[in-house]
Every structure is written in C-alpha cells, then in structure tokens.
Design a protein that fits this description.
The complex is a heterodimer.
Chain A (H helix, E strand, L loop, with lengths): L4 H29 L3 H5 L12 H9 L2 H32 L5 H10 L6 H18 L7 H25 L3 H9 L4 H12 L1 H17 L2 H6 L7 H4 L11 H35 L1
Helix pairs in contact in A: 1-13, 3-13, 4-7, 4-10, 7-10, 7-13, 8-9, 10-13
Chain B lengths: L7 H7 L14 H27 L21 H7 L4 H34 L7 H13 L2 H11 L6 H8 L14 H27 L3 H9 L4 H12 L1 H16 L3 H7 L10 H10 L4 H32 L1
Helix pairs in contact in B: 3-14, 4-8, 4-11, 5-8, 6-12, 8-11, 11-14, 13-14
The chains are: A mainly alpha, B mainly alpha.
Chain lengths: ~280, ~325
C-alpha cells in the first residue's frame, strides 16, 4: 500500500524540521569544539574560520579534567556493578518466588522513583555526616557516598526491567538445572544469567548513564578531590572568560562513551524501557 | 529494533505467573535475595524522607549542620514562614509552584506532541527510517549537562547560535536576552523538551508496533482518511501507553532540576525558578535548612495529592507491574 502524497510531503517536512531541532546543538557542539578561542568569543559563526584540534588538547590542562573523568568513571562503574548485582538478586526473587511482601516490595521500590532528589538530598547529606562521625570515615565528599546514592537511582528500573526478562525465561530451564543438581543460585548463574544477557547489558548501560549524568547530588556531595564531570565542566567559566570551544570539546569527549554505549545497546534498552512503560 | 514484535516484559505482563515450585528453596531465600536492594533504597530514599519531615520542625542553620541533632525545635514556625504568602519567602514559594506547573504543562504537551508526531511519521517503513530513529534518540542519550551546557552557549546573547539564526533569517534583530526575564521561561521549556521528547517518541513508537497493520488497510479500503485513522484507531489503542507515559513525563518535568541549574547556575531568573531549584537555593544558598525542609514537605504533599488523583486510572497496571 502506497502512502498518499500529502502524507509523504508531511513526512519529509516534519522529519526534516525535527532533525534540525535535534541536530542543531550537536552541530554547535562539534563545530565549536574545532574553533579557535577567538571564533567563539565574537558573534556566532556557522563555519570555523580555521579548523583546530587545539581545544581537545587544552581541555586537559585548563582544568583537572582527567581527575574528574577518572572520578566519574570509577563512581559510575562501581554504582553500575552494585546496582546490577543487587537488581539481579532482587529480580530473581520476584520472578521465581511467591512470598509475603512481594508486591509491597515492588511498590515501595518503584515509588522511590516518583520523588525528586531534592526531597532527600539534605537529610541524606546529614545522615552521611553522622555516619561519618560514628565510623570515623568521612562519607560526605567521598566517592563511596556517591556510589551508594547512584546505585539506588537506577535500582528500581533495573529490577523492574530484569523481572520482565527473567519472567520470559521458561521455568523448565530452571527445573532442568535442578535435576542436574543445581541449587537456586546455581540455576540463576547457569540458566537465567546467560539467557538474560541482553537485558543485563541494557540495565548496565542505563545505570551507567544515570550515574554519569547525575548533577544534583554531585553538586553537594563532592569536594575538589571527588568532583565529577557534571560539576567539573563548569570550571571552564572563569570570572572574566568562558572557554566555550573547550567547554564544547570537553562535552563531546564526555558524551562519546555513553552515547556509543547507548547506541550499541539501544535495541535491548528500548525493549526494556518500553516493557516498563507499556505495562 | 522496531521490528521486534514482542518485548520480554510485555509478554510476561500478559501471562499470569505460574505457581512457583520451590522444592529446593528455604522460605527465607527470597527475603535474603531482596534484602540488599531494600536496604539501600531505605537508606538513600525512605529514611532521609522521613528524616526530612523531622528536620522541617527544627531551627537548622549553618551553625548546627555538623551536629544537627542538637538543633532547637522550631515547632511549626518553618511552615508558617513558607506558607505566609505575604512574606518574601512564602510569596516566592507560591510563585515557584506556579512557574513549575506552567513549565510542566508546556514541557509535557510539547514533548508528547513531538513524540507522537515523529512516531506516527516513522510508523511505516521507508528509506532512512532506521537512521532517523537512532538520530532522534541522541538528546536522550547525551549526559544531561553536556546537552544543556551546549544550549546555554547557543542561547547566549552575543555569541549564541540562536540569535545568529534568528537575526540571519530576519525574524528578530538578533540581540535578544534569552536567559533573562520572561524569555528564560521559554528557553527552559525548549531545552527541556529537546531532552525529553525522544523518550515520548520511543515509548509511543513501541506502542504503535502493537497495532496490527491490517487495521489500517481495512480502514483505507473503507475510505477513512489519515486523520480519521489516527483519531479512531491509533489514539484509542495507545491509551494504556499514554496513561503511563503522561505520568512519567509529568513527574520528570515537575521534578526537573538539571535544566535550570545548568542553564542559570546560581542566578535563576524568577520565570524559570522551578520548585526543585527553589528548594535547593533556599537550603544551600541561604543555609536555611529548616525552612528548606518545610518546603520539601509541602512539595511531597503536592506530589502525593497529584498521584493520588491520577493513580486510580493506572492502578491496575501498576499492580500488575
């Protein structure tokens, strides 16, 4: 069936305008990152006067970008690892067992998603201060505090999504593993995990993206040694000057890992996102 | 991606879970498996929220932060201050709620409309469809600060791309302050929509795939126009998707902190003073944590009322989830 002409015209025009809206900031980011400083301080120019990769060299010395990058990487990877392990464990319990409190647990965990971070930012900060005083380990300002915080942000969605994946794995496979002498954990490791690998990959990239982009808690809970990219990138603005070409170069550099990961795994993430949203 | 006919979660949602067989598992096993996840959710979300209610009854300022348990009680003073709409603090809180509602309605409406528009246009296959679908997801995949900081650069008065574009096209004279005064509201909405609409697009696109193609073919044979097809098949069949999508879009817009924080830093114009950033600045800029917590409690109440009104609509789905 051929689409009517009017629909095809609408499609070309509509999708072109949307593409421009989506791409304009991407174009500004990429082109400005290749401009000399003079180009970004005057009126905006569509084409760089000269192409230079100098901003990509300078970003590392203007601010301690490598340290912020390392902080973000360590925090995001640890938060992802913990979140995925806890989510696998919880999702396995929900998918394979019926027990008292099962739905209460799901409602509690999901409901934490609806409240803004600002509601628990300050009390959590104070609790970390107290825990620090009790244990002698300064939690506030440490990377550990951010890992703990970030892992809970992606946990509800990760559990929700993995329950969907686990439910779709036939129970006969568990039973076969039991016949072979595997316990519950053995069945999880030998049967469920390999079958749910795409889901686990998708949950991982989601958790990583969540931690990598988080701004609110990073703005309060980090100090100069634990600062992450979300806060560090602001330092390209000084009292007198904003190094916009470096800001754009740095934004590009910090975006590449997550965008690449997202685009690689988008198929599985989309399945999980929509499974969550459609239900 | 879009050619997948069934998603695992959806399949699972439709099939009632079978009776478990747990010959090998002791009764405590599921609880042990859930405990770590529950512990962290309690520590980071539930306990602090309850603590926040307690803090809202304290006279808590910078002198008491390190030993906040010793802060003197304030009774309901913090609430009186926050709710005194004749005073400076109360009136700006009220204004912030108003701005937040306006922002939420605008962001939700535009994000949903753009997402629906794109999803319908990409419903049937044509050359370049897969490329566009990937392209449209990029704003959602970018780290929020990278995307928003680029917009901040674009919206600058003297060296921004937006003024250059509008000036070149002759629409404005090209020296508008986009990040000041009333314009800041429109700028914030545009940036938020840019980030959010791909999610609406994604969700609606997946929802559209569940509508069988022959419905449209039959309708076309009967002479139904495209708009009629959209009205009588597409929209009704997307109803369950829309119920959840609108709630998610609402909560994300209403709770948005990142967009105004990254666009404006410490000096947020009144027209873009969303509630999250308002509470943040009331607490961390003025160090008035008691009043800040009272505002948080009020925000919590507003959100609870809104979801209590909305949730009965989606209740069944949430329980099934």
């Amino acid at each position: 069936m051929r689409d009517p002409l009017s629909f095809r015209v609408l499609r070309v025009v509509g999708l072109s305008l949307l593409s421009l809206f989506v791409l304009a900031p991407i174009y500004v980011m990429v082109s400005s990152s290749l401009k000399p400083l003079g180009d970004v301080q005057g009126e905006f120019t569509w084409i760089p006067s000269t192409l230079t990769v100098q901003p990509f060299v300078d970003i590392w010395s203007t601010i301690p970008l490598a340290r912020y990058f390392a902080n973000s990487l360590v925090i995001s990877l640890l938060a992802t690892l913990c979140s995925v392990v806890l989510a696998i464990s919880a999702a396995y319990a929900i998918s394979r067992y019926r027990f008292r409190g099962r739905s209460a647990f799901r409602v509690t965990v999901l409901s934490t998603q609806m409240f803004p971070g600002i509601l628990f930012l300050l009390p959590l900060y104070l609790i970390f201060v107290n825990l620090g005083q009790l244990t002698g380990f300064a939690l506030q300002g440490s990377r550990v505090a951010l890992v703990i915080t970030y892992l809970t942000f992606s946990l509800p969605f990760a559990i929700w999504m993995l329950v969907g994946y686990f439910d779709s794995i036939p129970r006969e496979l568990d039973e076969a593993a039991h016949v072979d002498g595997a316990g519950p954990v053995g069945a999880l490791v030998r049967v469920i995990l390999p079958s749910a690998a795409p889901g686990i990959a998708a949950v991982s990239i989601y958790s990583f993206m969540t931690a990598w982009g988080e701004t609110l808690f990073a703005s309060v809970m980090t100090n100069s040694t634990s600062r992450t990219l979300a806060i560090g990138l602001r330092e390209y603005s000084t009292q007198t000057n904003v190094y916009w070409n470096e800001v754009m170069a740095a934004s590009l550099v910090v975006s590449v890992p997550v965008v690449a990961g997202f685009l690689l795994l988008q198929r599985y993430l989309v399945q999980g996102l929509t499974a969550g949203a459609v239900k | 991606m879009a050619t997948t006919t069934s998603t695992p979660g959806v399949v699972a949602g439709r099939r009632p879970p079978r009776r478990p067989r747990s010959v090998l598992a002791p009764r405590w096993l599921p609880y042990a498996l859930l405990a770590p996840a529950l512990l962290f959710e309690l520590l980071v979300h539930i306990v602090p929220m309850v603590t926040g209610i307690y803090i809202s009854t304290l006279k808590l300022n910078q002198f008491f932060v390190r030993r906040w348990l010793e802060a003197p009680s304030a009774g309901i003073d913090n609430f009186s201050v926050a709710l005194n709409f004749d005073g400076a603090i109360g009136s700006s809180l009220l204004r912030s709620f108003g701005v937040t509602f306006a922002f939420t309605v605008a962001t939700l409406a535009f994000s949903w409309a753009l997402g629906m528009f794109a999803a319908v246009l990409l419903q049937r296959d044509f050359r370049g469809r897969a490329l566009l679908r990937t392209l449209f997801l990029i704003p959602y995949a970018l780290p929020v600060y990278a995307g928003v900081i680029t917009w901040k650069f674009m919206l600058g008065r003297d060296n921004g791309m937006v003024n250059a574009l509008l000036g070149d096209l002759g629409i404005t004279d090209g020296d508008t302050f986009w990040l000041l005064g009333g314009n800041a509201f429109a700028s914030t909405v545009v940036v938020a929509v840019w980030r959010l609409w791909p999610f609406a697009f994604l969700t609606l696109m997946a929802g559209l795939q569940s509508i069988p193609n022959d419905v449209y073919e039959a309708a076309a044979v009967d002479g139904a126009g495209l708009w009629q097809q959209f009205r009588s098949f597409t929209l009704p069949m997307l109803r369950p998707v829309n119920q959840v999508l609108l709630l998610v879009l609402f909560l994300w817009s209403f709770n948005d902190f990142n967009v105004p924080y990254i666009l404006f830093g410490q000096s947020v114009p009144a027209s873009a003073d969303l509630i999250s950033i308002h509470v943040y600045q009331s607490s961390f800029i003025t160090w008035n944590f008691g009043v800040g917590s009272a505002m948080s409690v009020l925000l919590l109440l507003v959100l609870l009322v809104i979801t209590a009104v909305y949730l009965p609509l989606t209740n069944r789905r949430l329980r099934d989830a």
